[in-house]
Amino acid sequence: MHIGLVVPQIPGHINPGTTLGQAVKARGHRVTVICNPQGAAYAERSGLEFAPLGVPEHESGESAVVKEEIAKAQGLDALKKTIFLASNATRLTIRDLPVLMKQHK
């Protein structure tokens, strides 16, 4: 079986996700980590396959700009920017995931 693990590239999510992936792989399954491009290193270190989400946005630097803005923001403004980041990640996942699932079977 080929299993895709869709996880955000946040240590509290990707670290347990790759640990789970390693356990599933050890049982003889093929495992692909699906995440933003920065998650590739986590998948590689774990011996898992990788499929990136949101490549154009990450290559253009758009995502990095939003993260920098959040780091500088405070209070309600920081909350609004964090919600924007989360909703944007959801949008990219909805856009890219069906294509990746077909490509990686």
Gap between N and C termini, in Å?
10 Å
Strand order of the largest sheet: 1-2-3
User: What fraction, in percent, of the residue positions are helical?
Assistant: 55-70%
Uncertain runs are: none
Could you say which overall geometry the principal axes of the C-alpha atoms support? elongated
Q: Assess the beta-strand content as a share of residues.
A: 5-15%
Main β-sheet description: 3 strands, parallel
Derived from helix and strand composition plus strand pairing, the structural class reads alpha/beta
Number of strands: 3
Radius of gyration, in angstroms, nearest whole number: 15 Å
Order of helices and strands: EHEHEHHH
Number of helices: 5
Indicate the mean pLDDT: 89
If you had to describe this structure to a student in words, what would you say it looks like?
There is one protein chain. This protein has 105 residues and is α/β, with parallel strands linked by helices. The protein has five helices and three strands. Helix 2 links the parallel strand 2 (30-35) and strand 3. The termini are close together.
Outline the secondary-structure elements:
Blueprint: E1 2-6, H1 11-26, E2 30-35, H2 40-46, E3 49-52, H3 55-59, H4 62-72, H5 75-104
Parallel strand pairs: 1-2, 2-3
Helix pairs in contact: 4-5
